[in-house]
Amino acid sequence: MTGKSAFITLEGIEGAGKSTCMALVARLLEQAGRPPLQTREPGGTPLGEALRELLLGHRHEGMADDTELLLMFAARAEHLQNRILPALEAGRWVLCDRFTDATYAYQGGGRGIDLGRIEVLEQWVQRGFRPHLTLLLDLPAEVGLERAGRRSAPDRFEKETLDFFRRVRETYLDLARKQPERFRVIDAALSLEEVGTQVSRVIRDFLEAWS
Ligand code: T5A
Q1: What's the CA gap between 167 and 108, in Å, rounded?
Q2: Is residue 158 part of a domain?
Q3: 2, part of any domain
Q4: Residue 132 carries which DSSP code?
């Protein structure tokens, strides 16, 4: 393995286990001598976290779909320029809880915004930059929502219908089918231990192949 840094993202519907797996992936990277910068979207910078509050809180329930989309990309532009890219350029690995695939899945699949319009913004903000590896934690929407519901009060997204989250899941799976070189799909409906085994295997393989 050379000193090249990598950008790894975790994706999935609510309650899929992203936060839980993030800790495991961070530990595995640390053990491999690559302690990652751990961050999340929307968020990751002071401005991004302020936008996160606007996006997830209940103060703006009637937010227009395009406003939501643009705020996601505004937070992402800030995050990329001020945190993700500087870390990668400094040789640090970056591990992020959600990134642009979430925009395709939630604003595209969930809200029904045309995917071509999202692609325009992706290109504008990212100029071709994409994660090197994305772990998609996949499970039925019912199971994820039930887990998320046990953990905390619903945010603005978690109040959406089951059909919304089914569309989000399908869009994620579609992205994974179209970009198999980047995505690894994890069966997140299994026990924590079994999910951990799958995640460990993916990270080990990635570390071996990355140069
Ligand atoms: N969003 C985000 C967009 O709409 N567009 C975008 O572009 C972006 C970037 C962010 C919200 O913003 C939206 C998507 C989201 O709605 P968030 O807090 O990042 O919100 O994401 P959530 O999905 O809400 O985070 P959660 O904490 O609900 O889900 P996690 O992190 O996937 O799940 P986790 O690890 O907290 O686990 C939930 C519970 O399940 C248990 C855990 O112990 C925990 O109690 N659990 C398991 N139980 C049994 N078996 C397993 N295998 C388990 N794995 C976890």
Answers
A1: 9
A2: yes
A3: no
A4: S
